[in-house]
Amino acid sequence: MTAMAVRATPFAGDPEQPFTVRDLEGMPDDGRRYELIDGMLVVSPAPGLRHQAVGYQLHHVLYEACPDDLFVVGAPFGVHFPDDEKNELQPDVLVGRFDDFTERDLPAAPVLAVEVLSPSTAIHDVNTKRAVYERMGVPSYWVIDPEKPSMRVFELDDDGRYQVIAKIADDEPFDAIKPFPVRIVLTDLLGRLAR
């Protein structure tokens, strides 16, 4: 199953109307990820083993290095702007300002969004979600491919556009400065799965 965009709304009302953040509250708890991009519902299947291993290990590494004014959360956890009813994303791992979080979501741009690629979501993560994170003003965006393994690090430039500032692979270390100093080694994140 691949990530699938759904236009028509299953809710009462005009089927041509876009989905809203409120509509997401009615989605089933079935292991799939339900996100909203410009009013279009995007449904992704449950992730696989390598995806989950990288996501959980990255969360741990970031959490251990995270300063007190920031907080690290893993998916599923919604990110949106309070005045934007047509977009809500769920990065695989995100870092936000501690004071911006609510119990149910992050209604502000995170300082870091990380997507771990799956075969079913790779094109969506690399293109569509990157464009939304850029529009939201997320300063740092990391895309990790657990199959290769490799990572691309994007940061906003002075014009608010993402530029690739690093590409790493296998056991190459990445010494992040933003949003805080931390060393990432992809083979360490994969553990026994890197063999």
Automatic annotation (TrEMBL):
UniProt cross-references to SUPFAM superfamilies, sorted A to Z:
Restriction endonuclease-like
Matching entries from Pfam families are given as: Uma2 (PF05685)
Q: Which domain of life is it from?
A: Bacteria
Q: Where is the Putative restriction endonuclease domain?
A: 24-167
- Protein name per the record: Putative restriction endonuclease domain-containing protein
Organism, by scientific name, is Amycolatopsis taiwanensis
